[in-house]
Amino acid sequence: MKKLIPILTLLICAEARSVEVAHEFDRKEEVACHKEIQDLGCVDSADEEILDCVERQKAKLSPTCQSIHLVKSQK
Amino acid sequence: MLKKIRANTFVATTVLAPVTYASVPTLALTWDTNVNTVSMTSSQEAKIQRAEEKIKAVVASSTFRSRVLNHTYRGVKKFVDNNGLTNSQIYYKILYAAEKLQPSKNNTMDMGIKTYYENSNTVGWTSTGSTYINMNTKFLNNYTSTNVTRNMMHEWLHKLGFSHAVSYSTSRDYSVPYGIGRIMEELAANY
């Protein structure tokens, strides 16, 4: 039994780590926020947001965009 | 008169000119929903039920089949974040409806819906560790049943194991939850 405890712990941890939370944001606001992030130069060539870059400049974002970024950065 | 010529394919037989009807698999016609709602007002409940009816009608349609099978990203018939599946495999995954947490292929959208209120821009959220999805009443109360079909389909596709990038990008719109959610909303507007 004692030998099984580390294995069970590992399995439980792995299961907990595999749980993902997905948010759906209001599209209109999210697209507008993406534009703000793009204007900050925090979007790569694949049109994907660079979260570290946004984090450094988040004070420049509108309150709505800041709240969207906050949820994303907590993931 | 419809004559079955092979599994799930029907051809209209008339004396003058045979007409071929776009076919859908039997699984599309028998596809069902089993949605459990928690603490909803009668108006919210009615909206969800109407959305369920629309989703069933859309899934049963040959247009939905065609839109999923022909979904294209950058000139290639595929979805982004497709878990290695072809469009056809994704279509059948929807029809089999085996959720990660309720893995029997029961041909039924099994899902619970809880509501919450938050003055934010989050329409809803779900966790892969739960059979429930969470809808923000700030949006639910203003949505039509057609809008709700998009959100329900989007969140349920997460239950099937599909994911998407956290942040918005043009490519994310072509992921399975966003792409099929959008198709659902467009087609649900016809019902």
Structure description:
The complex is a heterodimer of chains A (about 80) and B (about 190). Chain A is mostly helical and about 80 residues long. Chain A has one domain. Chain A is about 65% helix and about 5% strand. The longest helix of chain A is centred in the N-terminal third of the chain and has 15 residues. Chain A is elongated, with a radius of gyration of 18 Å. The mean pLDDT of chain A is about 80. Chain B has about 190 residues and is α/β, with parallel strands linked by helices. Chain B has one domain: 3-Layer(aba) Sandwich (Collagenase (Catalytic Domain)), CATH 3.40.390. Chain B is about 40% helix and about 20% strand. A four-stranded mixed β-sheet of chain B has the order 4-7-9-8. Chain B has a three-stranded antiparallel β-sheet with strand order 1-2-3, with no helix packed on it. In chain B, a hairpin with a 2-residue loop joins strand 5 and strand 6. In chain B, helix 2 packs across helix 6 and helix 6 packs antiparallel against helix 7. Chain B starts with a strand and ends with a helix.
Question: Pairing-aware structural class of the strands and helices of chain B?
Answer: alpha/beta
Helix content of chain A: 55-70%
The separation of the N and C termini of chain B measures: 25 Å
* Extended strand count of chain B: 9
The biggest beta sheet of chain B is recorded as: 4 strands, mixed
Low-confidence stretches of chain A: none
What is the arithmetic mean of pLDDT of chain B?
A: 89
Element order, helices and strands of chain A?
A: HEHHH
CATH class of chain B: Alpha Beta
- Rg value of chain A: 18 Å
Widest beta sheet: strand line-up of chain B = 4-7-9-8
